[in-house]
Every structure is written in C-alpha cells, then in structure tokens.
Amino acid sequence: MRNGCRKAMAVAALAALAACAQPVPPPAPADPYAGTGNVARYTGTIRQGDLPGTVTAADFVRTAGDTVLFPENDAALDGTARATLTRQADWLKKNGSFSSVVEGHSDEKGTREYNLALGARRAGAVQEYLVAQGVDAGRIRTSSYGKERPAEVCSTPECQIKNRRAVTIVKPGAGV
C-alpha cells in the first residue's frame, strides 16, 4: 500500500510539473528586410497580368474591341474585322468564365425583315469566326436587331457605316 501511495504521488507530481511546463515558442520569422536600413523595399520580380477577379466586360471592350463593321448589304469579314475578332477570341479563351452575345445590326436601307436577316448573318459570321479561333460554341449566342437599334440616327453614307455592325457583349458566366 505504501508503494502504491508513492507511485500515485509520483504520478501526481509529474502531472503537476507537466502542467507548469512552458510550451516551446515557435521560431521567430526571418525578417526579409533585415539589413536594408529603415526602408522596406521589395526587390523581387512581379509577373505581368490581371489579378484574379479583376477582369471585367469593360476590359474586353478596352483590350479587344467589341464592334466590327461590314460592307453594305454584306456579312463578309474584312481584315480589320478579322483582326478585332482574333483579339476577341484571345480574350475569351483567356477568360473562360465569360460568355458572350453577338448582336447583328444593319443600316436603315431595306425592309425590316431583310435587315433582321442581314443582322443575323452578320452575327453568325462573327460567331463562326470566334469558334474557328477556338472559342467554345456554347459560350456564344447570337441575336439580330436589324435596323431597330442604330448606333447613329442619320442618313449620310459616312454615318450609316457605323450601323452596319456586329457587337460582341461579354458577361460573367461560362454558359449562355
């Protein structure tokens, strides 16, 4: 019994000592600016690019351009239009979380039905080009407004050029 009492007292003493022991403090972090004086200056390199979550539809308009123009009564893509669409495709491939709607428009010449069909052909030409450049077809929807939403209300040939267009509108969301 005496032995049992001693063992119990020894265990209690060890438990009391363990409870009083101080935890080992974590090592102090190394100061990367030690030895630089009073100034903390970053000397590494920063990779170019956009911060995650900072890409917007306005970036698309600014960097790729959202509008391509067409000849009168035609849905053919000239070199300027193809260059713009290549930039659009690159932007869309880089920013896979965005989807797009291509709106086809026309000038005021012709009937409503003719211009709706022409706007649809223009939007389709843009969609087809973007898909050929590697953009997933499921991310591009088309619509036609014909002559219903002109960029400019005018009747001069120089001004009507602005209405023969397709506008690509992007929005967050991968699917259409």
UniProtKB/TrEMBL annotation:
GO CC terms of this entry: cell outer membrane
Signal peptide (UniProt feature, chain positions): 1-30
Residues covered by the OmpA-like domain: 57-174
SUPFAM superfamilies in UniProt: OmpA-like
Main location (coarse class): membrane
PROSITE patterns, sorted: OMPA_2, PROKAR_LIPOPROTEIN
Compartment(s) where it occurs, according to its Swiss-Prot or TrEMBL record: Cell outer membrane
Pfam families cross-referenced by the UniProt entry: OmpA
Keyword terms: Cell outer membrane, Lipoprotein, Membrane, Signal
Protein known as: Peptidoglycan-associated lipoprotein
Organism of provenance: Paracoccus contaminans
Lineage: Bacteria, Pseudomonadati, Pseudomonadota, Alphaproteobacteria, Rhodobacterales
